[in-house]
Design goal:
The chain is an all-alpha fold and about 110 residues long. The chain has two helices and no strands. Helix 1 packs antiparallel against helix 2. The longest helix is centred in the middle third of the chain and has 51 residues. The radius of gyration is 23 Å and the shape is rod-shaped. The N and C termini lie close together (about 10 Å).
Length: about 110
């Protein structure tokens, strides 16, 4: 169960991986465009490059969604930590600790 700071770190790692894939896609496009081929060879290269670029794009979209989710979880963990901190500092005798909003939420 990661903490808020660990979720933020995960999001950063996912963003870095996404940027690396973006760079790879640009290099692949450049390589394919630089080839002087025609006929069936060109068709095969274009088809393979197209499929590869589509797969890379799908992976970058997934990485982006996962990074957004990690940041969202960090925000929720931060809010829970703040609420729990207020509970710990409370002088109210009948105060009860805040409930975790989800099983993956951790104090800290």
């Amino acid at each position: 169960m990661p903490t808020a700071s660990e979720y933020r770190h995960i999001a950063t790692v996912l963003d870095d991986a996404r940027h690396q894939l973006d760079t790879l896609a640009a290099q692949l496009r450049s390589l394919a465009d630089g080839l002087v081929l025609s006929g069936p060879q060109r068709t095969a290269i274009d088809a393979t490059t197209g499929v590869s670029l589509a797969n890379i794009r799908a992976a970058t979209v997934d990485l982006e969604q996962q990074a957004v989710e990690a940041r969202h979880r960090a925000t929720i963990c931060d809010a829970y930590t703040a609420a729990y901190g207020r509970f710990l500092r409370s002088d109210e005798v009948d105060a009860s600790p805040p409930q975790r909003p989800a099983p993956w939420v951790r104090y800290g």
